[in-house]
Specification:
This protein is of the alpha/beta class. The chain is built from seven helices and eight strands; from the N terminus they run αββααβαβαβββααβ.
């Protein structure tokens, strides 16, 4: 991606790529905005916060190469959305099935905290992904920032919620436009601070994807075309 909307973030990601982390000093860092990854015909979309400085910013693929991905991809594999439980780098052959992963911000921010302006700068890219996923039926907010970005993106497309969506693990809301319903599910972000403390457990996370599968099945997910993976 050649986006220059946030010069300070491009400078930061490039700096991280040059200086590297000792554990990854022999790696060639991606050091650029990280594009979404997954099935172009996906019925389910996951929206996270932003690339990790030494995870996605290194590997060039969402949730790949860090602790959050080590928790996420096994869950997707158990639910049948991923071809393998381990994500190492964008060349590892992993494919997503009926699933697409993206983030509210595309560049790794300092301290993993994008500013409101940086999130606004990235927002149009998220809306474009929503529009491209014509079979979308379930969207999962991985953390409050991803959740809130989803709410805004659906509103931008003309979807309306019956009530005000409020983030909380396991919360479920439904947005409707012209007879089409998109379900919004919320879960705590699979960051180490949540998984190591037990705030987010394997069982809690698996329950989210079980619910997503139920919604997709009801919407006719079993009749979707075979996965057309989009390389990271």
């Amino acid at each position: 991606m050649r986006c220059r909307r946030c010069p300070e973030l491009r400078a930061y990601t490039a700096q991280v790529a040059r200086e590297k982390k000792r554990a990854h000093r022999d790696c060639s860092y991606w050091g650029k905005p990280v594009p979404g990854f997954g099935d172009a015909h996906a019925g389910m979309l996951l929206v996270g916060l932003a690339p990790g400085a030494h995870g996605s910013n290194r590997t060039g693929r969402p949730f790949t190469g860090d602790a959050s991905g080590d928790f996420l991809y096994p869950a997707l594999f158990r639910a049948g959305f991923a071809s393998a439980p381990v994500a190492c780098d964008r060349f590892d052959g992993l494919e997503l099935r009926d699933c697409f992963i993206t983030a509210a911000a595309r560049c790794a921010p300092p301290k993993n905290k994008p500013t409101p302006q940086e999130l606004r700068n990235c927002f149009s890219f998220l809306v474009e992904e929503f529009e491209a996923l014509e079979r979308l039926r379930v969207v999962i907010g991985l953390g409050a920032t991803g959740f809130n970005a989803i709410v805004r993106a659906l509103a931008q497309q003309g979807f309306a919620f019956a009530g005000k969506p409020v983030f909380g693990h396991g919360a479920e809301f439904h947005a409707v436009r012209d007879g089409r319903t998109v379900s919004l599910l919320a879960t705590y972000h699979p960051s180490r601070q949540n998984t190591n403390t037990g705030k987010l457990t394997v069982a809690m996370f698996d329950a989210i994807f079980t619910r997503a599968k139920e919604i997709l099945a009801r919407a006719g997910g079993a009749d979707r075309p075979s996965a057309d993976p989009v390389p990271g």
